[in-house]
Design brief:
Layout (H helix, E strand, L loop, with lengths): L5 E6 L3 H16 L3 E7 L12 E5 L11 H11 L8 H12 L2 H21 L3 E5 L5 H4 L5 E3 L3
Parallel strand pairs: 1-2, 1-4, 2-3, 4-5
């Protein structure tokens, strides 16, 4: 009998990343492996409805309770001039500004802290990452990880 693994999933706080990871790990879950998603509060219950475990954390940058997470993403993209009639060069500069913003860096820091706690609690055998950068807690954990490329 094959050993059942505990797999931690750390993805960007965006529907496309989370949906891709859910699809990728569904077969693992069906084979009896334990799949746990690290999620901010706004995503509570979304992946549990599909049978996945959720490790929920409270981010410093909170959504309003009635706001869908995708609305938050659209709002940020709009604020940073990534949606709308802007030239490719303007959008590229705006994207750099978004990645350098306090908002984005806070989200990364919050996620890293949550991932560190989840690693301590669940002691996963492997970690799946679908993010723009690798969390330091994953890098220094010594746990094998794989980057999902959607």
């Amino acid at each position: 009998m094959t050993k059942k693994l505990t797999i931690l999933v750390s993805a960007c706080n965006e529907a496309g990343h989370l949906n891709a990871c859910a699809g990728e790990t569904l077969a693992l879950k069906k084979r009896g492996h334990r799949v746990i998603f690290v999620l901010p509060e706004a995503w509570r219950g979304k992946l549990a409805a599909l049978g996945f475990e959720e490790f929920i954390y409270q981010p410093s940058v909170a959504f309003s309770p009635d706001q869908h997470p995708g609305e938050h993403t659209a709002k940020i993209l709009n604020e940073f001039n990534l949606l709308g009639n802007y030239s490719p060069k303007e959008k590229l500069v705006s994207l750099r500004n978004l990645f350098d913003s306090v908002h984005h860096l806070t989200e990364i820091s919050d996620n890293d802290g949550a991932v560190k706690k989840a690693i301590e609690q669940f002691k996963p055998d492997a970690i799946i990452v679908d993010a723009h950068s690798l969390a330091p807690s994953i890098f220094y954990s010594g746990i094998p990880w794989i980057r999902s490329c959607r």
